[in-house]
Amino acid sequence: MSSHKDLGGIFDGFEGYRSVERADLDRVLRSGIVAVDTNLLLDLYRYSKSAREQVFAAMEAVPAALFMPAQVQKEFWRNRDQVIREVIATNSVSGLREARKKAFGELASWGTRTMSESEAKELHDLLDAAFKKVIDRVERGGSGLNLRTALRDVADDSILGRLAALFQGRVGRPFTPERLTELVTAGRQRYARRIPPGYMDADKPGQQEEGTGDYLVWEQLIQRASAEGKDLLFVTRDRKEDWWRLDAAREPIGPRVELINEMADRAGVGFYMAVPEDFLEAASEAFEVEVSESTLDTTERLAEEPEPEGPVPWSRELFETLLSRLEESGYPLRAKVLREAARDPKGFVPRQRVYELGEYPEGRLLVGFTRPVMGAMRDLVAVGSLPEGMEPVLRAHYLRPGKAEGFVVPRSVVESLGREE
Questions:
Q1: Residues 274 and 409 in one domain
Q2: pTM (2 d.p.)
Q3: Which of 74, 259, 272, 385 holds its CA 20 to 30 A away from the CA of 347?
Q4: How far separated are the first and last CA of the chain, in Å rounded?
Q5: Is 337 found in the same domain as 269?
């Protein structure tokens, strides 16, 4: 007769499938290792001043276990200049400068007929000051940075200065050339068998280290966790399946079970992951760091793939395809919000209406509300039901930093569906 000692539970040997609780993240933030990915660091150049300050405050609140893998350091320096150039290009003000010239011409033509020279000069100076203020603000992108100066001289890069202080003594040492060669070979062998992480990007053009960058990060995470004997949290905005276990809308549920098991087998500790907005939320609760809803939305928005040739507009058929997928995947509220927004001439649904549709309590945060929608879009693109480069279909709308006023859909959605009579 067997005893109960011979029996186990349903999670025995499958602990990686357990849901991660906020208490787990709180514990790792306070006493574990918090490792950052390259994208979190480079996004600091893309944030507004207030968002960047909040991200820095969250990282600075984490105790001494903050960690940057050597591969992350390498990829940061490899991509920093290009990211800064892209942000500068995004903040181009050539159109405003042309408008400034035209405005001056109109003012001069009008002024010579209706006012004295001194009055015309006074208006010219007022207009010039206003344009200068707006152009300066747009060039800075609200970031409070002079990126052109930072690009010329790293000593004038305030982001770099804060990162240097924050990660002093917290960056992993590079692998020796011999060890690196071994790991690159091992990584390619793993990718051939689709062993995570990193196989999704392995064969993309322009990859260095033969596309094994994510695997090299992973190896140093294991190395660090083993040396410290502490659970490790990895913060990345990478949402691909070679790092995450995904739900029906291709949104992260938790780390791949293979990664949890490998970390436990080789380092004897737990492995956790968080996208930036979840890390910021957890840090906000653990250390009472101020993080606004607009900052959380910004970190989520940056996870969306860029459309290099411009977004593809929505048609009624494509929109209905997305709504069906959301309803099938267990997100009917998102489908309701999208339908209401599509019926509005401005494509807008107020925050209060979302509370009503979802029967949410007053004051509930709407952080991550658009995430399942973007996940469903990525899933439909992957299976060929949506074309690549679709315009993001639902965005949070802000009048000022803080909480979203509501949500908006693109003009192409409103025009393709029209208002229901």
A1: no
A2: 0.71
A3: 385
A4: 72
A5: no
